What we know:
Shape: globular
Structural class: alpha/beta
Bound molecules: thiamine diphosphate
Radius of gyration: 27 Å
Amino acid sequence: MLFTLTKDRGGFMGVYLERVNDVSELKNLNKTELVGLAEELRKHIIECVSKTGGHLASNLGVVDLTIALHYVFNSPVDKLIWDVGHQTYTHKILTERKDKFDTLRQYNGLSGFPKKAESCHDIFETGHTSTSISAASGMAEARDILGEKHEVIAIIGDGALTGGQAYEALNNIGSKDTNVIVILNDNQMSISPNTGGISNYLNKIRTSILTSDFKLNVEKWIESIPKVGKYMKKTVELAQGSLESLIIPGKLFEDMGVTYLGPVDGHNIQEMIDIFEKVKKLKGPKLIHVKTIKGKGYGIAEEAPCKFHGVGAFDIDTGKATASSSGTTYSQVFGSKLLELAEKNDKIVAITAAMPEGTKLEKFAEKYPNRFFDVGIAEQHAVTFAAGIATAGLKPFFAVYSTFLQRGYDQMIHDVCMQKLPVVFCIDRAGIVGEDGETHQGVFDLSYLSTIPNMTIMVPKDKNEFEEMLEFAADFNGPIAIRYPRGQAGISSNISPKIEYGKWETMIKGENIVIIATGKMVSKAVDIAEKLKENNVQAELVNARFVSPIDHEMLLELGNKFKKVYVIEDNIEHGGLGTKVIDFYNENKLLKDIEVTKLAFPVTFIEHGKPEELYNKYGLDVETIAGKIINDRTGILSNIVNEKK
Ligand SMILES: Cc1ncc(C[n+]2csc(CCOP(=O)(O)OP(=O)(O)O)c2C)c(N)n1
């Protein structure tokens, strides 16, 4: 294979990739050249992702599938909807973004997910799983009402097919004649090996023969089996229904009214092209089962698809991370502490919605397989499942990323909090997560949790406090959430008082202004207070360990002492800690004497980039906040601000 270095950017492109700037040019390549293109694409993706980080294994698995889809369908007239959207790298490269591909996930660079602003080929934005069939179904119905003619294709993974919304959509399309195409990309993996009944079912049919024009006549098929066939037919006539479901691939989908095709080899471009061409001629909802290998073409990733699901920069030869990570992460602290608590309390069970690695529950799963539940990508189910477990007298800890818990909002209200059930929500990746961007930033949780009656919310400032909070939660008899950020859990030098329900902690005594900070922002606030001190502003610093309830007693004391209150949080500015502080002073008629400034993210979707770049952009870095406080006091822009500018 010939590889040439692209003009002004890193990354290798081969001869075929050089010829394809847009999908329309794909059709100029013959079958052998398409295979060559796939090889070049893999190399280009590996080269770039080894520098930028990203979802490597999922993308390597769908290179051939994406080529076949773009070869047969005519994007953007035909609509491709990518479930999760983390597997769109080949799609991006083939749709005029190959020269920008090395900016993937970087601030101001290409997003790691479909983005309408990037390309007319990104027809629908995704990031959370299991939405593609719903969106495709909606687009197909609208197309028919509008009298348009084009195909709508949802591409969904077997992992995403564990999410309830996918079944709501299948249920819907199966009852209609509307033309919708669903491509099931089955690599047997979610992030970890896929779990659950549907995964078992798919595994069974992965090994079955291609039924081509489907609707197999079971009786004929059985009869055709030499010798055994006739005998089988007689003995199983009565049980035909159940037999069919065993031997006809995709019977489940067929029974729902969705024509099933496959399974087809997802690394044989020609086979896929042939079947996609056939599908175009069929009416109604169709599902094509495509078997792929996660990490395909890069041995190290094929062997460890879970590790290479999402990676930072790495060395291509060894697969090892190039950036060294030091210190313990919040997720690791959670994993170890929960193990320790579970040893002492056999009522504790752990739940994850398909994120055992991310939330660091692997050791728990190993040690207590009967007390560990991976329910699939089903956050809403996980919440009510936890409610059931709590009702029966056990103590569930549901570890979940902030952004994905949005899925379980009604279940938190209706199934957990209304009944005051002792479920512990361990909310990981709260605040800014960074390179995954808009769909993944955990900046809404303080707002959405704060609106729920009976929900207690704790936010640790460091490792020690987090461990204490987990202990507190284990003994707490009601719904309780602990939200903590992605990344390292520092240890502050401060010796904290014991956790007391609803009580905050004064960390620094001051005279001029007070800063109330929560969670990750507390350590920033310590630096801010230091900078202020250098500029003769003595700031008091309060650690808001609880966001629900807030510490009324302390707020009244602070209200008597200070005229200026700054509230710093890594949440949007509406509905979080700052809003609660303002509401409290307002309700107590103190706002005429006190000015409260909320320092938080605006109510917007925060793009991708490194966390520090995003804190800078939104004015939540140490220098900007310190500069603002000094400016408020003196009326002149401080040196700190000037230096930064
Ligand atoms: C609602 C939701 N929960 C969790 C995730 C995290 N997540 C991203 S990809 C993924 C696995 C998806 O598996 P699959 O659909 O089979 O795609 P694959 O990566 O295997 O190609 C998970 C759990 C998510 N994106 N959305």
